[in-house]
Each structure stands twice: as C-alpha cells, then as structure tokens.
Amino acid sequence: MRLQVELEHYRNVLIVRLIGELDHHTADSVRQQMEEAILKGGADHIILSLKDLLFMDSSGLGVILGRYKLLKSRGGKMVVCDVNQAVYRLFELSGLFKILAIYDNERAALTSLEVVS
Questions:
Q1: What are phi and psi of 90, to 5 degrees?
Q2: Where are any strands of DSSP class E within 1-117?
Q3: Rounded distance, CA 43 to CA 96, Å?
Q4: C-beta separation of 5 from 29 below 8 A
Q5: Where does the STAS domain start and stop, copy by copy (predicted)?
Q6: How many beta carbons lie within 10 A of that of residue 101, not counting itself?
Q7: How far is Cα 11 from Cα 45, in angstroms, rounded to an integer?
C-alpha cells in the first residue's frame, strides 16, 4: 500500500495527515514534504494526525523524531492525535510518548497548542 500525505496550514500549525503505510519505502518522501512545509510555510508547531495510518516501522519513527527535533530547536512543539492501536503500541514501545503528547482528535490537539479561536 502506498502512503498519502495531506498537509494543511492552520495559523502557525502544520497539520500532517498520514494515510497508508509509513515505512522505509515512503519515509524519505514524508521527511522531505514535512521539512519543506515547516521551513517554507512558517509552521511553528505540527499536529500529526494518524487516524488512517495503517502501518509504521522504525523508518517512520525516525522521520517523526527528526521533525520533532527540528521543531524543538526552533522553539516549536509536535503533538499526535487519532492514533490507532497498532501505531499506538509502536509509539509506546519506542518511548515517543515520553516526548510527544497524544490527543483524541485534531481539535483537542489544536486546543493544546492554544491556536483555536
């Protein structure tokens, strides 16, 4: 299965919706798209919406961790929402939830970043 990446800017937040499988075949493309959107789009924060992410391997974890470090170095935050059970387990095992907050949906994630009017 392929991966579809939807990027949406909302104020100073980049919402990244991943649909499909994030693995070693798709990681470089996701990395590039997210970095471009962060650097050119002026995003201070990222919401990773993973409702439709069916599979992720260690390459995907690397992409997420790298973008987290980029944002943190710029004073921004990354949060995650709509995580399915399989991906949740991977995040849990990898320890990513120690550095990334998780929310039930995009609205709650936006509220946490204090950008909802």
A1: -65, -45
A2: 3-10, 13-22, 45-49, 53-56, 78-81, 101-103
A3: 21
A4: yes
A5: 3-113
A6: 14
A7: 10
Whether 102 contacts 81, CB under 8 Å: yes
Amino acid symbol at 115: V
- Contact assessment for residue 36 and residue 67, using Cβ atoms and an 8 Å cutoff: no
62: tokens are 């690397």
Residues 81, 48 contacting (CB under 8 angstroms): yes
Distance of alpha carbon 33 from alpha carbon 38, whole angstroms: 9
For 33-52, the pLDDT digits (tens) are 999 998 887 889 999 999 99
pTM across the whole model: 0.92
- Which residues contact residue 71 at a Cβ distance below 8 angstroms, ignoring those fewer than 6 apart? 38, 44, 45, 46, 77, 78
Q: What is the pLDDT of residues 80-99, one digit of tens each?
A: 999 998 899 999 999 999 99
